Amino acid sequence: MGWLPVTLLAVPLLGALLLVAAPAALRPALPLYGQAVSGLALALAVVMVAVFDYGRSATPQFTVDLPWIPGLGLRFHLGVDGISLPLVALTALLTFLCFAYLGWGRARGPGRLMAARPRALVFTLLVLEVGMVGTFLALDLLLFFVFFEIVLIPMYFLIAVWGGKGRRGAATKFILYTLLGSVVMLLGLLLVWAQTGTLDIVALARAHGAGMSRSVQILAFVAVGLGLAVKTPMWPLHTWLPDAHTEAPTVGSVLLAGVLLKMGTYGFARIAVPVLPEGAVAAAPWLGALAVVGIVYGALACLAQRDLKRMIAYSSVGHMGFVLLGFATLTTVGVNGALFANIAHGLITGLLFFVAGAVKDRYGTADMPSLGGGMLATLPRLGSVLTFAAVASLGLPGLAGFWGEMLALLGAFQPGAGLSRGLFLTFMVIGGLGAVLTAAYFLVMLSRVTHGLPPRPSLAGAGDRAGAGAGVGVGGGAGGGLAAGVDAVPIGGPRGDMEEASATEEWPSPSESHAEGPESVAPLGEPGRSGGPPRDIRRYEWVAWVPLIVLILLFGLWPGLLLSLTTPAVQTLLGALS
Questions:
Q1: What is the structure's pLDDT at 457?
Q2: What is the DSSP secondary-structure string of 277-323?
Q3: Which residue from 66, 164, 442, 485 could staple onto 390, CB 3.0 to 4.6 Å apart?
Q4: Which residue(s) pair with 75 in the sheet?
């Protein structure tokens, strides 16, 4: 069934190319078009999951191996195994949920992105899906690099065109960091090619470093690892992430946290550790040290944040620290924990960014002190989902966030051969402290946002706040008079303005003249428009969030679903180290 991965790539690619020739008359159908194309890709991913031979999860399946550039010996080599299959399915799922969120809510909060330039937005998201899925399917080093780089341009435009007020600076920082990391990674991949004469990932993994001296493996591991660490991101190469998440639109944050960060950690499992085992052993103590620094740093940074999206972004630095710690242990338990935490983080943080976007839509701000608290009293369903996602992210037993971090710490308790147990026990203790701090900053966030009594409406000065574009929740709270008119007025002004913007849709440019960006042109509940509180969770939000909630519960209560899939593949990739 080699046609399956090819078709999985071809569907979003052809869907994007067809948009280039799409006439203007099809613009009203573009939200449905995006859902249909991404839904077909999701259906193909479900078929792949259904027919996958779980008894051979360590062996690449559905492979296609065709000549690509014969003169250089390059091949178009695709396939999936127990490591990549969950990530392919996660990518297809999150992309479809993002399209559903945009399409079903196009007359309300998230739909302001579809009000103008819808063709460009759908095109950008489909090209992004091609790059993300292709990265997890590629079994050739250069093909992996090509797909790894494809995602950078659409994500840059997603932030720079549809982001918030500081979108251009955040997008530029994102592209500069990731391109620089990619150049270093490419040098490492070329070094492997020069030493072995092949770019075939499967053959290189089976050879376990044969044909490369220890010094060459260390040099190649450092180069490849630095490129992957930027995308992960690993402390101290993380500084592009908070700005990118804060300024990105909701769907951009969901895909950035849910999939793009996993491309970096996936590279460690697919390339760095199995292809360069001696380099992995030499670099593991340094990787573990940077991982635990990132865990503690991310938690402390979260405690200092006021903005909800920025706090979630910094939490990703800490969670990815647990993933890197799992890889640094070079044990079946630790690497399994890293792969499990990858999937759990994609589901949980994707849900957190969806909810953070909903909060900002209703209150006009993500500033936690300005929200005023009391969300469980005024918006009980939204407050409950935010609470669920937070306790899942802090690692509550019974939810998906628990198993990955616990297994990573357990792997550090008994690290792989050639690693200092005393050093990794220290890493385990520091990582455990970081887990405690994780619980602390999420509980602080919940105390600020969901608990307590909602603030009373303050009519004095309301006009000044409205005129300054302040958030709806400032002084008024979720139940106050300033939280009015959520559904009465479309984003950006009267409905006629939206129709006019849609009628003048153009392809995007980072030099777009909007001063604030599509996600910050106006608070959703602009004061004085009507007399009701903001609505609780809407139907299109349930559509996007319920699958994530179900999977978080499923993998939390039944972790063997993932661990039985990844364990044989992990044992194979660690074969040279056991």
A1: 53
A2: HHHHHHHHHHHHHHHHHHHHHHHHHHHT--BHHHHHHHHHHHHHHHH
A3: 442
A4: 67
What's the whole-number average pLDDT of the chain?
83
Inter-residue contact 346 to 94 (CB < 8 Å): yes
Residue 237's pLDDT is what? 87
Per the CB < 8 A criterion, the answer to whether 65 and 85 are in contact is no
> What global pTM score does this model have?
0.85
Which residue bears the tokens 């005393």? Answer: 422
Alpha helices (H) along 138-260: 141-150, 152-162, 167-196, 201-207, 214-231, 240-247, 250-255
Neighbours of 507 (CB within 10 A): 12
Structure tokens at 56: 């051979």
**Average pLDDT in the 174-186 region?**
91
Over the stretch 306-344, which tens digit does the pLDDT of each residue have? Answer: 889 999 999 999 999 999 999 999 999 999 999 999 999
Q: Is 117 left (phi over 0), alpha (psi -120 to 50) or beta?
A: left
pLDDT, greater one: 197 or 88:
88
- Alpha-carbon distance of 132 to 263, in angstroms, equals 8
Q: How far is residue 35 from each of residues 4, 161, 222, 499, measured CA to CA in Å?
A: 20, 21, 41, 22
| Local confidence band at 535 (pLDDT 50, 70, 90 cut-offs) | confident
pLDDT reported for residue 109: 54
Q: Tens digits of per-residue pLDDT, 499-516?
A: 333 333 444 443 343 444
CA–chain centroid gap for 319, Å, is 12
The gap from C-alpha 198 to its chain's centroid, in whole angstroms, comes to 31
Please say whether the beta carbons of 280 and 218 come within 8 A: no
* CA–CA dist 283, 276 (Å, integer): 11
pLDDT digits over 246-280, tens only?
888 889 999 999 999 999 999 999 999 999 999 99
**Buried b / exposed e along 19-39 (16+ C-beta atoms within 10 A):** beeeeeeebeebbebbbebbb
Identify the bridge partners of residue 67 per DSSP, sorted by sequence position.
Answer: 75
Determine the residue type at 371: L
Are 173 and 165 a contacting pair, CB within 8 Å?
no
Question: How many whole angstroms separate alpha carbon 423 and alpha carbon 526?
Answer: 55
- Which structure tokens are listed for 294? 């990132």
Distance CA 501, CA 493 (A): 11
